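Technical note accompanying the year-one report. For the benefit of new consortium partners, we illustrate the data format agreed upon in the data management plan: each record pairs a sequence with a structure-token string. No post-processing was applied to the example shown here.
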Amino acid sequence: MLLALDVHYEASLSRVGRVAFEQWDSPEPLWEDACLAAPAGEYRSGEFYLRELPALLEALKGHDPRVVVVDGHCWLGCERPGLGAHLFRAAEGRFAVVGVAKSAFQGSPSLPVLRGHSRRPLYVSACGLEARVAADRVASMAGQHRLPGLLKRGDHWARGVCGAMER
């Protein structure tokens, strides 16, 4: 199972959208939902991961994915970990982590991936999986737009716009 996670936070809580799927090119999820977690900590320059990592770890409890896809970068520089690398380390490498970011980060080794008719790439990086393989997998995901359909669903769950019951 692959699991896409996206975090949205407000003053009183964090909501994690979760979308599970069997294969990279799956058009539909195995299941999808949102779970609530403690409020995010305050933003600290250079330590953005501290805001989302606790919520991601909470959302993974009881699940054993082979790959987790996060909204963000795995690497901010050659030896500068981003959210994905911090998650990979916190999980002690139990699963690969693929970071899919919508914006470039100066110095990041992320690979640009063009999808659909978009002229703006996504930026893909990985831990526990070769970056080129991760980029090819993200490119193969279902959907005709820049952001793969299942990742967009995770964002919607995180923002609470799906209207479904939360677990």
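Partners are asked to follow this layout when depositing records. DSSP finds four helices and nine strands in the chain.
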